[in-house]
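Researcher: Hi, I'm a grad student and pretty new to this. My advisor asked me to get structures for two proteins we've been looking at. I'm not sure of the right format, so I'll just paste the first sequence and hope you can take it from there.
Model: That works fine. Here's the first sequence with its structure tokens right after it:
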Amino acid sequence: GSKASSSKEGAFAHETELAKKYEEEAAANPDNTLDESEQEAWEKIAEKFTHEQLKDPAYKAFMQRIKKEPQQVLRYAYEGKPLWFSSQQQLPPTEIPPCENCGGARVFEFQVMPTLIHLLKLDEVSKMEWGLLCVYTCKNHCERKEGEGCAYVKEYVYAQPENLV
């Protein structure tokens, strides 16, 4: 009886504390909480995930991190590493193609989070299913030479699929 119930309460002490902190933050800063449509989107995302995905360490890390800022659509980390959505189909650094302009190495610069799909409120969301988009840019910050057309340099984008299990 009481030993099992106190052990059960102890098992959820961290979650209870997080919920309490969230409620305090929501009361102090209502603009920082999810509105009804954002909460709905978050719940739909959570419903999609299977038991297998919940075992994936990359997925767990991703969900823990985005719980802090669920409205986040971009994550910037120049020369950092992507926060992968899954352990599957991660882009190995050796497969990042060199800059098409100068031949130099490309580095991770930012990622577009799946939250953006919901915020765009598109009619055909099914055509935009991805876990995240990683953008790799030229480490040399090169620019096109004069007379070569547009001043922008083509960068590399890798889309990690959403449905990997």
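Researcher: Oh nice, that was easy. Here's the second one.
Model: And its structure:
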Amino acid sequence: MGNHQSTVSQDAKLLYKKALISQEKNDNRQALSYYNQALNQIRSIDDNSQDIDQVRYSITLNMCNIYEGQHELSMANLLISEALEMAHKLKQQDKITRCLDTRGKIKKLQGDYDGALLDHNKSVKIKLKIHENEGLDVSNSYVDIANVYCDQGKYDDAVRMYDKSLKIQLSALGDNHPSIAQTY
């Protein structure tokens, strides 16, 4: 039985890789089909290993990103909730922050600006605790917060957050890096 489970796991990983390729080619319909097939394979495995949970997390988050990009926000919201639950189960702070950032973006698209700010600020707090300094990941969260403020018409707050992001980027990348121009 152990070999059968291993084979199913390999099949799921292969489907996952096919989904990633399809997603990279912007063939989201095919990517979702492969992701769903991979999830069905995983569900048939009587194994709660971290390896399986890692793959489930990645599949769920990638499906969420597709639905978010298609503005199918109710489905994206359902999937990000599942991914966040898995991230907590895996006890991986980087995955939790990624889910919080994604959920914040979904809430922004839904017009729930307070909820978006809450998620992005939770993410920043965790990132600062993990990294003990303001790295590019924190900079990206500041941009997300600034974007919410822009949508709310709170331009002074947005500029303040963009400035925080720019300061981090300049420190980490130098003033000649192409990413710096995007922040300006």
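Researcher: Is there anything I should tell my advisor about the second?
Model: You could mention this: The chain is about 85% helix and 0% strand.
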